[in-house]
Amino acid sequence: MSDKKWIQKAIKRPGALRRLAKRIRAINRDGTINLDKLEKYVKKHYTGKRRTLWLRRINLARTLKKLSRKRKSKRAKVKVKRARRVKARRVKSKAKRRIARIKRSKPRRKVSKRKTRKVKRKVKKAKKTKAKRKVKRSKSKARKRKKAKSKRKARRSRSKAKKKKVKRSKSRKRKK
Description:
Layout: H1 6-10, H2 16-23, H3 35-45, H4 48-90, H5 94-105, H6 113-175
């Protein structure tokens, strides 16, 4: 069987790049290595074989980063597909869930059609009231916005009036 992290096992000195990055403070807040900063440092301070070695390490780190991104994106796509499937299974209507709950609570008796209709009606009512509440909330938000807007306008007009007063008083003082 092939190992998933075969490239990581091929690295001779794991952790060397991170140690250098810590030493020169090239680690981001989220814990990733800032490879550009590291590369600039290496090009400035190292020469010869050591320089090529560090540059190779940096390039390898870049390629590993890309590989992990690809793998993560594949995983994410698979997770999304699974989530959709699960959601499709779970998304039974509320009425069906309630009916199932009633059946579970009283397994020996059959659930009458009348009871299931009642449950369905209750669910419909709940949905309607929810929708009404949403509408009310949106209306109240709109009212609040209007009030805030009118307050801003009033403030502006007051400040303009004050400025005019100050200008008038200044012009009167000059005339005297």
